[in-house]
Amino acid sequence: MIADFKAVEVISLFVEDLQSARHFYTGLLDLTVVYEDQVSCVVKLDNLMLNLLQASEASELVTPRQPGAAGDGPRFMITVATADANAMFSELSARGITFLNGPIDRPWGRRTAAFTDPAGIVWEIAQELPPAE
Question: What is the reported pTM?
Answer without folding.
Answer: 0.77
